[in-house]
Design a protein that fits this description.
By secondary structure, the chain is an alpha/beta fold. It has helices spanning about 25-35, 55-70, 90-100, 115-130, 140-145, 165-175, 225-235, 250-260, 285-290, 305-310, 315-325, 335-350, 580-585; strands spanning about 40-45, 75-80, 110, 130-135, 185, 200-205, 220, 240-245, 265-270, 355, 355-360, 360-365, 375-380, 390-395, 400, 420-425, 430-440, 445-450, 470, 475, 480-485, 515-520, 535, 540-545, 570-575. The strands form 6 sheets. Strands 10-23-24-25-21-22-11 form a 7-stranded mixed β-sheet, with helices on one face. A hairpin with a 5-residue loop joins β17 (about 430-440) and β18. The protein starts with about 20 loop residues before the first helix and ends with a helix.
């Protein structure tokens, strides 16, 4: 079975949604048991005004997952009711992200704009019933007149227009006879209602922006609240799953369906949004970051967008596992970013090939190894998978090692290189540090050592145990690599709680990106975008999907790599470090 053969999601062994018990699935079971619905249909309804982020992943997994668990269907429907903010680019990227995450709507792709004509006819219907009117007030005046939770709103004089006048004005709005902001259509409900959403909400506004699908066919566009419930009803949606901010809108959706006289009534169930520490979840503010050039686009690896996470190296499997573990509830809370990183590590540990890369190189010279000699050692590709095999790595007299793996004076429990200390070079020999050399500024530039020829394979025959093992790269065949390392884009843990007098941009982390230039084993020059790697003792990395160019892509064999470095660009993004703090904290 292919990844997208199933209508709603992949049924893989790591998915625990199938057996998950939560309040949403309990209510769905109740509805099936009572006969309220005989089949289950959900929908994922994104607005194409930006890229999806990690918060949307929760909604996607919930909408498609619930449908899957009850042998139902899930539609993808774009809420394209605001042409001034929506673009085809966003539509295309959203579809790509949903499929990348592992879900498929098959042939059930819909748009709110599919229903513009029907929505208009229904608006005319409720005007004829005396349940809607054309308003002359500005948006600011409407807002001020809506009142407060403790004070009733003020009824507009336009409320008492005749049905005939409202029909004429609404038709004029549709025909482009009025400028933007001149009129809106409002539902005539109750300006004293305890729920402010029910105080004569706006149904239509005038906009002359060209729509990405309908072009200039329409110059009036429905508000989300007017389009949402009817779109669900048209599609036969049984359960409208949405986040808690739409709870107060549920009575309005039901009022509209009742006013129109539609028999099919979807059941709306609300759940809490995904809030992640140090992470911005506002699509509007993420767009602002992009437009102001504070990040390098929607797919900047520091962004919480699915595009950014994908470019950084997060796998869809890890994101799905994280969403499942985060669970569904009606209580707002904050989830630690470390929890997401834990699931990323758990996933990558099983699939990421181990390679040797030195991020801060210093030269190690093995003084008793012949200068004109080199040999190829075999090292394992993936310890977690015995079938992953081995690959050759070149060994020579001069090697690159990590600067942090040497100390002039070793403290207690130091198991790496220092004068007189013995370490094992990964998949090679034991070496003993004999000397070191400094430059004029006092920085160590060379470490000297001697090797034990009989120690290849990890033993010398005398029973000695060497505690320290370090990775290395042969100077004779090392490749230059650029390593981009990321930390949180913001320094504030809860971006829903911006201190008074501050703006969210005041908390942008100016050190969220650092770039290192290291040395890699020759084999890495043929890595491909989409592959996952663990750079030993460094972290998990992936080739950057935009800037990486392998030697193979540059038309070079690895034997040519040293002489033509400028034709390749070995740029890697660090997905996550090896250190895990969340699992330790969670265990306490």
């Amino acid at each position: 079975m292919s990844q997208h053969e199933d209508a709603n999601s992949p049924k893989t062994s790591e998915d625990s949604l199938k057996t998950a018990t939560d309040f949403i699935r309990s209510k769905v079971k109740e509805d099936l048991g009572s006969g309220r619905f005989t089949t289950i249909k959900t929908r994922f309804p994104p607005e194409p005004n930006g890229y999806l982020h990690i918060g949307h992943a929760k909604a996607i997994c919930t909408d498609f997952g619930v449908a899957r668990d009850f042998d139902g269907l899930c539609n993808l429907r774009f809420d394209d009711t605001n042409p001034s903010k929506e673009e085809q680019e966003y539509v295309d990227n959203i579809m790509f992200d949903v499929r990348w995450l592992g879900f498929d709507w098959q042939d059930r792709l819909y748009y709110a704009s599919d229903y513009f004509a029907q929505l208009y006819e229904w608006a005319v219907l409720i005007i004829k019933k005396g349940l809607a009117y054309v308003e002359d007030l500005s948006s600011d005046e409407i807002s001020k007149g809506r009142g407060t939770p403790t004070e009733a709103g003020i009824e507009s004089a336009c409320r008492w227009r005749s049905i005939e006048e409202n029909l004429s004005l609404f038709e004029g709005m549709k025909n482009g006879e009025f400028g933007e902001g001149k009129h809106v259509l409002r539902a005539k409900i109750d300006m004293g209602h305890s729920n402010l959403t029910m105080r004569d909400p706006v149904m239509y506004r005038i906009k002359f922006d060209e729509h990405h699908r309908t072009g200039k066919t329409w110059c009036i566009y429905p508000m989300y609240d007017w389009a949402h419930g009817q779109s669900d009803a048209i599609e036969g949606v049984s359960h409208s799953l949405c986040t808690l901010e739409f709870e107060n809108h549920r009575p309005l959706y039901e009022w509209y369906l009742e006013a129109i006289g539609l028999e099919h009534r979807p059941r709306q169930i609300e759940f809490s949004r995904l809030n992640l520490s140090y992470t911005m979840m506002s699509k509007r503010k993420l767009l602002e970051l992009v437009e102001l050039g504070l990040v390098a686009g929607w797919d900047d690896p520091r962004m919480p967008t699915l595009s950014g996470l994908r470019r950084r190296g997060y796998s869809p499997e890890a994101i799905r596992e994280f969403v499942t573990a985060a669970g569904l509830s009606r209580s707002e809370g904050m989830i630690e970013l470390a929890m997401l990183e834990y699931f990323v590590r758990q996933d990558l540990n099983k699939r990421a090939m181990r390679v040797m890369v030195v991020s801060d190189p210093i030269k190690l010279i093995i003084t008793n190894y012949p200068a004109d000699q080199s040999e190829w050692m075999q090292t394992e590709n993936l310890p977690e998978d015995k079938n992953a095999g081995t690959r050759p790595v070149r060994f020579s007299r001069e090697l690159w090692i990590e600067r942090e793996d040497f100390k002039e004076v070793a403290e207690k429990k130091w198991f790496r290189l220092a004068p007189g200390a013995v370490v094992r070079l990964k998949s090679a020999y034991y070496v003993t540090c004999t000397n070191f050399k400094k430059d004029a500024g006092g920085a160590v530039v060379e470490v000297h050592a001697s090797y034990e020829p009989e120690s290849l394979g990890g033993g010398t025959g005398d029973g000695r145990k060497v505690k320290g093992t370090i990775h290395w790269v042969s100077c004779a065949s090392a490749l230059d690599v650029e390593l981009r390392q990321y930390t949180t884009l913001f320094t504030l843990e809860d971006l829903n709680q911006i201190p008074e007098g501050k703006d969210y941009k005041d908390f942008i982390n100016t050190e969220s990106l650092s770039v290192l230039h290291g040395k890699a084993e020759l084999w890495l020059g043929q890595a491909r975008v989409g592959d996952y790697y663990q750079f030993m003792r460094q972290g998990y990395y992936v080739p950057d999907s935009k800037d990486y160019v392998s030697y193979t892509e540059a038309g070079l064999g690895l034997a040519e790599a040293q002489g033509k470095k400028n034709q390749a660009a070995l740029v890697f993004n660090r997905t996550v470090s090896l250190k895990d703090t969340w699992s330790k904290l969670a265990a306490k």
